């Protein structure tokens, strides 16, 4: 019965799209990617504040250290929080830090804000909500738990579609972990697999107050249009807010758009003013006294050599910034430039596929082999999902061969015994360069879901610093080392056999996983 309900999402009506005007590249400026700041705030920082992590264990230990050291704010956005011992240890760390904050009279109260997805966070009897309720009960004034519910899951569809399958309609998919002025950007969720043997990507931005403020405001904005978890495990909207699935859908999406765009635009204005002020104060004719004063107070920062651009994608709200920037990067990549693109779930949008096949740069695309796919060995219909990905991969590879692009566009499959693969993002190497100058890191998978259904956020990190470029290069190399190149013989292996029913159903449901 539930197998046929997989088709129920096809009944949901499309949301009207608010299209942003196309952006044009701006050749002048500190670097060639400065055009991105026409869409989002630009944060200039020192490369010494950026640290690239490589393993789930390192990520988990850093989370605990950062929680314990937090004094003013902890902001965590994830798809869900798991229910195992490792996740409970994180919650215990939060409890200890909140307890310390209450006892320290001279320091400001610590605020904890957690944003999760409603459907994924409510799955099962023991779930993200039940793990967090004790924290809410113990610290009601300091802790906020927001559960985002997609406006597209409503009415008859919401009544008919069962648990787990309801997650196909749309999710809160942003992964962001913030502690005072330190920000971790990742594709990893707060679950034991992501702390042990599910490979992802992780970047720490240290001592970056403006970036931390921006992401705090972003999570607050999404939290304001989300259901608020109560101490008795009920949920309710903030007073005066339109309900995501009971209220008017158009009105809800409009308010959500306004709240998120307000955060983006106000931060962009702030950063432009800061940039103008810094530029003028660095001119030869500017006041030496003001410069000496700032030097004396120790507030003079080193010249930025790295720029951070937050890229937001929330198509249900008509926000398509990440899609626009990604498409422009792929379009403008020059001949002999190299793009290393990775996704845990290879299901590219038609637009991204057309750009990869129709442009001039070299592509090395890293994806999960069936055995390291997160759905491998799953029960029921979900167990066929790795086969569906194999089918999609085979179709794309056949298109590459048909266009005789095998040299320029190469597929590689990640394979590692006992591990699953969840890394996503890209590294851009300019023509003639052995090191990347740009990376995208965050939650999007470059698929239909990421572009059209879910709430996503990543950052573009642009750097001129060789040491940071080397860090990013090593990260890329380490991931690609555990991979093998895809060829025609790959799909002749027995484990690549795709059943006829999977081939027939995949085109109907590929937009939902």
TrEMBL record:
GO terms for biological process: cardiolipin biosynthetic process. It catalyses: a CDP-1,2-diacyl-sn-glycerol + sn-glycerol 3-phosphate = a 1,2-diacyl-sn-glycero-3-phospho-(1'-sn-glycero-3'-phosphate) + CMP + H(+). Residues 279-302 are annotated as: Disordered. GO terms for cellular component: mitochondrion. Residues 1-19 form the signal peptide. CDD domains: PLDc_PGS1_euk_1 (cd09135), PLDc_PGS1_euk_2 (cd09137). Keywords: ATP-binding, Lipid biosynthesis, Lipid metabolism, Mitochondrion, Nucleotide-binding, Phospholipid biosynthesis, Phospholipid metabolism, Repeat, Signal, Transferase. Residues 168-194 form the PLD phosphodiesterase domain. Its main location: mitochondrion. InterPro entries: PGS1, PLipase_D/transphosphatidylase. It is an enzyme of class 2 (transferase). Its EC number is 2.7.8.5. Residues 281-300 have a biased composition (Low complexity). Belongs to the CDP-alcohol phosphatidyltransferase class-II family. Functions in the biosynthesis of the anionic phospholipids phosphatidylglycerol and cardiolipin. This is CDP-diacylglycerol--glycerol-3-phosphate 3-phosphatidyltransferase. The gene is Pgs1.
